[in-house]
Protein 1
Amino acid sequence: MRDIVRVDLAERGYDIVIGPGVIGEAGERVSTLIGRRPVIVVTDDRVAPLHLAALEASLSAAGVRSNGPAIVLPAGEKTKSFGQLEALLDDILGRGIERSTVLVALGGGVIGDLVGFAAAIALRGLDFIQVPTTLLAQVDSSVGGKTGINTRHGKNLVGSFHQPLLVLADTAALSTLPPRHMLAGYAEVVKYGLIDDAGFYQWLEEHGAAVRSGESDALVRAVTVSCAAKATIVGQDERESGRRALLNFGHTFGHALEAAVGYDDRLLHGEAVALGMGMAFDLSARLKLCAPDVPERVRAHLAMIGLPTRLGDVAGVTWDTEELLGHMAKDKKVADGKITFVLARGIGQAFTARDIDGHEVAAVLDEAR
Ligand SMILES: NC(=O)c1ccc[n+]([C@@H]2O[C@H](COP(=O)([O-])OP(=O)(O)OC[C@H]3O[C@@H](n4cnc5c(N)ncnc54)[C@H](O)[C@@H]3O)[C@@H](O)[C@H]2O)c1
Ligand SMILES: O=C(O)C(=O)C[C@@H](O)[C@H](O)[C@H](O)COP(=O)(O)O
Ligand SMILES: [Zn+2]
């Protein structure tokens, strides 16, 4: 028996299949869904030696047709770029594909976001399947249809909403994930507890170490609860006109931090989110929206797990508050020149707010060092 979470979006609805060994079932599940349509698998050069053969063997054993060999891109955040998008489209289109072609994204959030965007625009829309291999991708990026790339102006500023046909989250594939990336994914897991599920947050305070170390039952539960939380929100607000903005908790600060670092390995997305969630609670406490001890309760948990909680924890970066404020002003949630913040009245009680005093935001950035 597998955990299966349904993303309920009428004709764009799909299943997320979760559990150890799901990649071994990929062939049967994909073949049932797409029949004789051809696939092109896209992955990165760290995932390819670890998990590509198993996926290809499963697809081939089930008779899934392939339109040429897998495309292997460089690993890392810098691959979410115009240059890599162009190279990917060039390779796909050079194969003389038809609209029946289905792209299969095997990898973390970088591959999923890039391949999803390529699928959205190639021939004005191909179907795609997500096979997420990082914790972050299994609990967050493979679900919900946000696809895109970074630009020199900021994070994810070019992209589209394009839902996958299916998500196959093989929790056993996380056994090869470096610990730092496991932790980065854990930040997005905690996010679901912090935004609207205090019971899940409390469970994480007790079982977070088991999730982090990859204990199968804890991991499957964390991935399933996270996917169910995201599926519910996406089902209510697919294009982020309201409630979906809660999934951006910690991201207004976090994306600015990533932009300031320049998307290199000094700061991973999940690490930026961990820092940003602490700051979102700091801002909430400064504005007397939540009790003053909540930011430290959250930081204590994130730090116990091993995530950064202060800007000083990020080695080799000098932070400039004015620069960070400039990046925050380019957030996609800016409307009428004002940033929409996701704040919280307590754990599990996030909400969106506007007209926040810029001096308070600057003070939070200054004090988070
Ligand atoms: N679309 C969304 O809703 C959404 C949500 C959250 C994050 N994101 C985006 O996701 C990206 C981050 O994704 P990520 O954290 O998965 O990073 P990533 O894709 O860069 O993967 C992290 C690293 O782990 C390697 N890797 C992947 N799977 C592995 C495995 N099983 N074993 C060993 N190594 C493995 C990768 O090659 C890479 O080096 C960011 O660009 C972020 O903006 C998107
Ligand atoms: O799915 C969403 O909605 C999210 O906000 C999930 C985030 O974790 C993710 O990082 C997302 O890519 C951020 O989106 P953006 O619209 O702020 O770029
Ligand atoms: Zn995120």
Protein 2
Amino acid sequence: MRVNFDDVTVRLGGRDVVQRASLAVEPGTVVGLVGPNGSGKSSLLRTLYRAVRPTHGTVRLDGQDVQQLTGRRAARAVAVMLQDPPTDFDLSVEETVLLGRVPHHAAFGRDTSTDLDVVADAMRRTGTTELADRMVATLSGGQRQRVMLARALAQESPVLVLDEPSNHLDISHQHELMTTVRSLGRTVLAALHDLNLAVRYCDQVVVLDGGRLVAAGPPARVLTPELIRTTFDVDVRVHGDTDAPVFAFSRLTTAADAAVPTHEPLPESSVPG
Ligand SMILES: Nc1ncnc2c1ncn2[C@@H]1O[C@H](COP(=O)(O)OP(=O)(O)OP(=O)(O)O)[C@@H](O)[C@H]1O
């Protein structure tokens, strides 16, 4: 399913937190949204799953304005895995993943064998099968995040939105998540803080800064040291190949840093004569 943001502005708290963003996402591609805290990544994504209505502009799924869809059609089209999954779920892991099937049910419909198969597959892909009977509230942050991915996968929507999906995951599970996401063949939009994950697993990256979309394209072409420096205020060294760079970051050295002496000079009187 193709996703288009056409000239989207989102105004919240009296400020344009997304300003005139336009972006075309091809079906089946994985797109990473990167940018500093507060740059508008989540706000832009929220317009896609209708948690926020654009103040200006249109978001389209295969040409259709998402605001015109029924709730059920929207839920069948777009699944969401949020940054901080809720902790107050009074449900088991399996029951939670089954919630992903709700948009496929008729009113008061019962779980079918297809639902159970899809849920079992989603739990297998996310390594949550062993947790099936655990209550979600008792899980660690990373386990809970994997359950929320399983629920989103079980929704079988052509579009998947991941808002900082790896913030609780250990390194191995971060790579597993991105490999899983890539293997789905769905259209994926993911807000990511880890530029190394973005460059390795995304087909395209989109850079937001201060609510503006400042660059978009193939990751290795877009994420230049210069862009990283100006957007994120860090120094970066690039290792690896031009096509598959690996970034090492360090704090940007400013003129103010250089002016601060690292050691107090010894007073004259204490210098041995
Ligand atoms: N409901 C709201 N009311 C007022 N301002 C909001 C609201 N939601 C978000 N904002 C502001 O909009 C700006 C963009 O926030 P957003 O969450 O989209 O950024 P982000 O790039 O996802 O940030 P992060 O990397 O920290 O998750 C921020 O300045 C935020 O404080």
